[in-house]
Design brief:
By secondary structure, this protein is of the alpha+beta class. The chain has four helices and four strands.
Length: about 100
């Protein structure tokens, strides 16, 4: 699979793989693909939940020899009350996230 950026979080334990992934995706354009390599045994569950919660797309995941690979496509944030849960008003949240 073609990727636009790679992130190595091997040796990192929860919550660091997700936090570092979020930071990496924040610096990427919509539609770009991030490849993440992790070793945390909780990573498959954590990355699936991360994708569901953020609206990013988990394109593929695989395990090989104690390592996990995740391919995530960056999506624009969904326009929902969940975004506003960060303490911003709904209008401010929508404006700051460029929701359509």
């Amino acid at each position: 699979m073609n990727t636009d950026k790679e992130l190595d979080v091997r040796g990192q334990k929860c919550p660091m793989p997700i936090l570092l992934t979020r930071r990496a995706l924040d610096g990427m354009d919509e539609g770009k693909v991030l490849k993440v390599t992790a070793t945390d045994h909780a990573a498959p569950k954590d990355f699936a939940a991360f994708a569901r919660k953020t609206g990013n797309v988990l394109l593929e995941s695989a395990q090989s020899g104690g390592e996990y690979l995740f391919y995530i496509r960056k999506q624009a944030p969904a326009c929902s009350e969940e975004i506003a849960g960060c303490g911003q008003t709904t209008q401010a949240a929508l404006a700051s996230h460029n929701c359509r």
